[in-house]
Amino acid sequence: MAESTFMGVxxxxxxxxxxxxxxxxxxxxxxxxxxxxxxxERREGDVKLVVANPNNCVVFCRACAKxxxxxxxxFPDKPQTVALIKSLHTQxxxx
Amino acid sequence: MNYVVLACTGLDKPExxxxxxxxxxxxxxxxxxxxxxxxxxxxPARYKKALAEDRLIVVDGxxxxxxxxxxxxxxxxxxxxxxxxxxxxxxxxxxDPELRLGADALELARKIADDIxxxxxxxxxxxxxxxxxxxxxxxxxxxxxxxxxxxKYEFRIPLSGYFFNANDVWVQVAGTRARVGISDYMQQRxxxxxxxxxxxxxxxxxxxxxxxxxxxxxxxxxxVSPVSGTVVRINEAVDDAPESINEDPYGAWxxxxxxxxxxxxxxxxxxxxxYAADVERKAAED
Lengths: 95, 286
Description:
By secondary structure, chain A is an alpha+beta fold.
């Protein structure tokens, strides 16, 4: 299957995905239950949830963070990501 | 006119405890009647008269926004909404995890209640966008569609007058104004839409910033703005009947913005024909 793209840029070049702050996470799993894109995966052991498929995350979507009571999920800076996509977009277009 | 306050009584998060404290302060100091969310959920008729006649202030604890959703289910229109977790975040603060409020949290509740009292008196349905001169004529209904067929699904896409971002949000521009909504493809993916949380009027939005959220029986969807600008109107009809997005995705706009950088924004959007190709690809990948 062809690699997925976002705004013409290969998805793998866009570092947009949630980061879990394990000091805050209380393993309630609401984010995992919410996200239909299988970004998260549950694990056995001390760390019970990981961001297993960051490239499945919908670029600019931060909806899982809103389900997070302890505010343990963060995302990259949007304006910086937009700037990166713009520059990659130009490069891709030029190639 | 009397006030009623519908607040999260959340007993599982400190934000809920702050919301509850704010409601008590408004009851004590501004004579607001308290609407119990549990009773409202069980017996909505109990508050029918108050919600129809009095000015409603909604105080949500966390982003789950149960109080807002209960108000929407009761078809009540708040004159003011406050999200405690949002206020905490915007202030760069953090609440102690304890449910019993400490001095800091009590001081925060006091400040929020004072802010509501100060602005609440001036808040009105007009301030929320109702009653403003409509500009319907400027935004023409789409007439020319292409249809992407994938298995049993058909996704309609207007071929003129609409632009799309990669997050399946459309924009229709008329002069310096723009309306945004979600595409037919996205509304079908979300299935039955049950709740729309529009942005606040006056909010400045960057391109790819958030311009509201849409919730369905299946998922929450952040409306990623295709344009930058200032929110000048929200669509009360969609607020009242979220399912209208399912019925008429290109007519059921969510917010209207005064554009601030349309030419620049446009460069990162696609027209209907290009979007149709994107939808075909996305549907195949689903």
